[in-house]
Amino acid sequence: MQFFSVVSSPVLLLQLCISTLHHMFASIFSAVRYWRTTSPVSPVDRKVDQRKVQNATTPTSVNYHFTRKCNYKCGFCFHTAKTSFVLPLEEAKRGLKLLKESGMEKINFSGGEPFLPDKGEFLGKLVQYCKQDLQLPSVSIVSNGSMIKETWFQKYGADLDILAISCDSFDEATNQLIGRAQGKKSHVDNLLKIKNWCLQYKVAFKINSVINTFNVDEDLTENILQLNPVRWKVFQCLLIDGENAGESALREAERFVISEQQFQEFLDRHSSVSCLVPESNEKMRNSYLILDEYMRFLDCREGRKDPSKSILDVGVKEAICFSGFDEKMFLKRGGKYVWSKADMKLEW
Question: Could you tell me which residue ranges the Radical SAM core domain spans (predicted)?
Answer without folding.
Answer: 56-276
